[in-house]
Amino acid sequence: MITHHSDERPDELQQLAGEYVLGTLPGEQQRAVQARLQHDPALRAAVDAWEQRLLELTTLAEPQQPSPQLRQRIERSLDSLGSPAPSTSRQPADSWWNLLPLWRGLAGAGLFASLLMALALLLGDPPPATPTYLVVLVAPHSQAPGWVVQASDRQQVQLIPLGETVIPADKALQFWTKADHWQAPVSLGLVKPGQTLSLPLDKLPPLEANQLFELTLEGVQGSPTGKPTGPIQFIGRAVKVI
Amino acid sequence: MSLPEPGFDYQGCLAACAQGQRQALRELYDLESARLLGVARRIVRDSATAEDVVHDAFVRIWTGAGSFDPSRGSARGWIYSITRHLALNFIRDGARLVPAGEEDEPVSAVSEQQPGFDLQARSAKIFDCLDQLEPSRRSCILHAYVDGCTHAEIAQKLGAPLGTVKAWIKRGLSALRECMG
């Protein structure tokens, strides 16, 4: 998580920052720079300077009048957000979703799915159809199960609490998913502790085996960046039910 | 030609957004949406996707306005950076519908003035500095920044080997930094 780049020469840092702003870095490097920006002031300063240097090149793109629907779409999205997140001047040191070892370690958590599948199916009110995918979301450290995600088709998921989750009053739980080949998690919205939720996945690719689901602790309005920023509370991967 | 609105207080606008004043974002939209859409459209090459990018950009401007830090650069620059990087993320995720190289631009000789870049009558320093670059290096920088092209796409456009394009970009960036300070 702590990355030292003491062997990096100043002109290498400038090149990296310049290519990051140009957009020519390969995807993986681009994401690595994004992650480093959170905790590397020298790189951040270099990137900021390049953004300013090149900004006027945006005037080379011919303006294009947006469709009348775009304004309404934005307004609707803002309505669903409520008021903006309270000002926070600092981002967390790193984005957990960039941490490969974490994802690898979680593969083991899939074991819980098989152990808890029976339990989940016994939890009263069975869904109308047999679930085809099941995810047990466990706490990262204790591995204690907290929620179950089940899907009876690949376009709709249900999130079911297994117990009482206590969160600070000024925080909210945000629900995310990420398939293996996606670059970053996608928000499925805010979840109240103890709430059962049914969510359409129609804006996303169909649910797939091993797809990751997690709940993170975010500000009351959800992550300000659109990506998880707070600590993971519960996490697990989708298992296909035979 | 699209230049910033001289009288508009971009930083004040972000401060108002951070306070939850929806009207401030509407004013920003009126002022900048067409330019931002143009920037996004050029990178993602598809109007519908470009509108998705601008939608996401305005949501992010709204939710992130409170974290804008004026010591790191101009408010207007911040807005454009958000939009460009969202557009770049879209194409890196494989969402670009028209692959680079399949649009109207011919694969042209390196020294040729690239169509689509009208550098005439531009007063900003960057254009003076670009003017001093060798044409091949200039083309690389512009195709990357304005069109969101990868190294490989630029190589294809310019009919040059990949390694050469990488070197041109490297030297182009060094020269620009030297020229602009």
TrEMBL record, chain A:
Superkingdom assignment: Bacteria
GO BP annotations listed: regulation of translation
Membrane topology: Single-pass membrane protein
Keyword terms of this UniProt record: Cell membrane, Membrane, Transmembrane, Transmembrane helix
An MF annotation (GO) of this entry: sigma factor antagonist activity
Protein name: Regulator of SigK
Location of the Anti-sigma K factor RskA C-terminal domain: 116-232
Keyword Nucleotide-binding: no
Chief site of localization: membrane
Organism this protein belongs to: Pseudomonas urmiensis
GO cellular component: plasma membrane
Compartments in which it is found: Cell membrane; Membrane
InterPro entries the record matches: Anti-sigma-K/W_factor, Anti_sigma_zinc_sf, RskA_C
